[in-house]
Amino acid sequence: MLARLASPSDQRTVNWSGSYSSCDQRFELLKHGPLDLGVKISTSNPVLAEQFRLAMEFWSGVIDMRWHEETGNACAIQLVEGTHEILKKSIVARAQFTDWDNFQGWIAFDPAAKLSRVEMYLTAVHEIGHLLGLKHNPNAKSVMYYLDLEGPEYLDSSDLTSLAQRHKLRPSVHAQISVARTLALVTN
Ligand SMILES: [Zn+2]
CATH number of 21-187: 3.40.50.2300, 3.60.15.10, 3.40.190.10, 3.40.390.10? Predict the structure, then answer.
């Protein structure tokens, strides 16, 4: 299945907006590290919430970051339910960009999108990657490729180089990381 993700290739520099509460700690995402991120999960889909938590766990193994769940506005990231205005036709999820105007720390997901657990997980890893400063990668094996393709996905060396310019990588991180390494957890 192909799940189209929002493309940032157009020239806008103002983020999408919506009637969600802003995350007061969102600029924590601009720090090099260590990061301490509050994550507010505002979705009616418990499976999506669980895959989003697993995606945060993945990223906490890549960069010097810890996270906790936050119910108030002291969040850096908020998972919100996307509207049709935010999620255009066939787009399942969309992140804001930290360096564009109106950055509020939001990632919008279509809570009714017909995605498997693995697709939700990989899409969450992709969108959180945007909040950590990553752009799309032309390598179709990268989790930052603009389409969510079936098959193994990685953070490749160019993703990791970009990431290291923004954040402190964990010492165990080498040339390439499989994003699928936690899929045993995801599919059980
Ligand atoms: Zn994207």
Answer: 3.40.390.10
